[in-house]
Amino acid sequence: MSEGADFERAIGYCKELRDIYQQNKTYAKIRDVMKNEGSFYTQIISTERIVPRYFYARYYGQGFKQMGLTGDAFVYRGKPLEKQIDFTNKLLRLYPGSVILKEEPDASLDDEPGMFIHAFIVLPVENKAMIDKFTENKVHPNIAKYSLMTHIAAVQILRKTKEDSQELNKVYGILENELPGIRRSVRVTSISSHKPTKQ
Q1: For 63-165, where are the E strands, in sequence order?
Q2: pLDDT digits (tens, 9 = 90+) for 81-91
Q3: Domain residue ranges in the chain
């Protein structure tokens, strides 16, 4: 489990195993699990982990209508250092016949036949409430940094101010649920020009 650096999830599994072994009175196994659990806590503190990359994908075209995706946007939690081309290739395999758009189109494309996807990398917006809590409790920097970049409720999106301009405007995508969750993707419920103050 430590190879993937998801130590928090590993600790969760350890707790589940401890409960099972406790019920079965297999104390030697509890001892072994607790040793592993302790090593995961040590690695959380001592390891500077690479955070996941996040991708935004907006679906256009009548081809997505039957799937209920036309007009919707999602944020996906990718792998650390995952390249945009690898992410878009996954979308193309998932939706054969779709076209990846390099520029943001007009929303009228939703009424056109076919399947179109505008996808790109976005940045997580740090949760201010978590920052305040970590500062107050003097949480170890490695833990704070990783938690802030992996538990997100909004993302930062850069958009062109005008169609023919190279200037970028910063907006924020508000997520339906916090990432990470059961799924690796979450619907974007709204776009705001103001950075969210409460998450």
Answers
A1: 73-77, 99-101, 116-124, 152-160
A2: 899 999 999 99
A3: 2-46, 54-192
